[in-house]
Design brief:
The chain has 120 residues and is mainly β. 0% of the residues lie in helices and 52% in strands. The protein has no helices and eleven strands. Strand 5 and strand 6 form a beta hairpin.
């Protein structure tokens, strides 16, 4: 399984980005998918997740009301819409698939990550 994230980059504070994740199509019977992030010198943290069948979502408190997780109708691509970005959102963002438990993980499959930098 090789999931590939895209859409990261440099953005000014208050700006927006949309991350995408693809390549998970061969995973049989996905239950949940989501996004984690890791900032320099910090532990990896949960950002958002979505149940693949029903579309139920969960968010961390620090991104709730700013970020939106979604999937396309064909269920081949996962998105993370990020608005009102702050410097503290700077991190490597990872796409994850197939949790061993609930929406917040732990997750079995991880992408390689995409860098998001929020700076003026």
């Amino acid at each position: 399984v090789q999931m590939v994230e895209s859409g990261g980059g440099l953005v000014q504070p208050g700006g927006s980005l949309r991350l995408s994740c693809a390549g998970f199509g061969i995973i049989f019977s996905i239950n949940n998918m989501g996004w984690f992030r890791q900032a320099p010198g910090k532990e990896r943290e949960f950002v958002a997740a979505i149940s693949w069948a029903l579309g139920v979502t969960a968010y961390s408190d620090v991104v709730k009301d700013r970020f939106t997780i979604a999937r396309n109708n064909a269920k081949t691509t996962l998105y993370l819409h990020m608005n009102s970005l702050k410097p503290e959102d700077t991190a490597v963002y990872y796409c994850v698939a197939d949790s061993a438990s609930g929406l917040r993980g732990p997750y079995r499959y991880w992408g390689q990550g995409t860098q998001v930098t929020v700076s003026s």
